[in-house]
Amino acid sequence: MARRSREREPEASGGSAAREPKVCASCGRRIEWRAKWADSWAEVKYCSDACRRRRVTATDLRLEQVILELLAAKPNSKAVDTMDAARAVASSAPAGGSRALGATASGSDPTAAQLSEPARRAARRLVARGLVDMVQNGRVVDPSTARGPIQVRRRSH
């Protein structure tokens, strides 16, 4: 007796186009297809409930902008550490601690350490848009699986 798979393959519900690769709008990681999304794959934007709640904030957009500004100030082959962007945004945060700019629950301004992961998310979103490459030790790495310190450089065509 043939065993029946519980997972619906996308080919059965719309062809291979139904399973096109997606990237989370919040964290920039690759979204893996799941059977529960078979009927709504076209509408899936976020990889998790946490990313859906977090969305993309003004701080996230500012971090993307700062990364691109830092890259523009460097020669073509030079990379920028995402922590440099986190430090720049943390030092320019408005006094009073705006929640939109990533302030802590106590209302204090965000520190570079608190902006470390948001800076990595910003870098992954820039990679997904094709603007930069993520590198470690001079080698391009997969942004969805990279661990440890990362840098970004302009995409080499």
What is the element layout, followed by pairings?
Layout lengths: L21 E2 L6 E2 L17 H6 L3 H15 L6 E3 H10 L24 H13 L3 E5 L2 E2 L10 E4 L3
Antiparallel strand pairs: 1-2, 3-6, 4-5, 4-6
CATH topology of the largest domain: Arc Repressor Mutant, subunit A
Low-confidence stretches: 3-17, 96-107
**Mean pLDDT, all residues:** 78
Strand arrangement within the widest β-sheet reads 3-6-4-5
Structural class of the secondary structure composition? alpha+beta
Q: CATH homologous superfamily of the largest domain?
A: Winged helix-like DNA-binding domain superfamily/Winged helix DNA-binding domain
**Rg value:** 18 Å
Span of the ends, CA to CA: 52 Å
Q: In percent terms, what proportion of residues is strand?
A: 5-15%
Element-by-element helix/strand order: EEHHEHHEEE
The tally of beta strands, per DSSP, is 6
Which CATH architecture of the largest domain is right? Answer: Orthogonal Bundle
Overall shape: it is: globular
Could you describe the 3D structure shown?
- This protein has 157 residues and is α+β, with helices and mostly antiparallel strands.
- The chain has two domains: 10-54, no CATH class; 58-154, Winged helix-like DNA-binding domain superfamily/Winged helix DNA-binding domain (Arc Repressor Mutant, subunit A), CATH 1.10.10.10.
- It has four helices and six strands, in the order E-E-H-H-E-H-H-E-E-E.
- It has helices spanning 49-54, 58-72, 82-91, 116-128, and strands at 22-23, 30-31, 79-81, 132-136, 139-140, 151-154.
- The strands form two sheets. A four-stranded antiparallel sheet has the order 3-6-4-5. Strands 1-2 form a two-stranded antiparallel sheet.
- A hairpin with a 2-residue loop joins strand 4 (132-136) and strand 5 (139-140).
- The longest helix is centred in the middle third of the chain and has 15 residues, at 58-72.
- The N and C termini lie far apart (52 Å).
- The model is unreliable at 3-17 and 96-107 (pLDDT under 50).
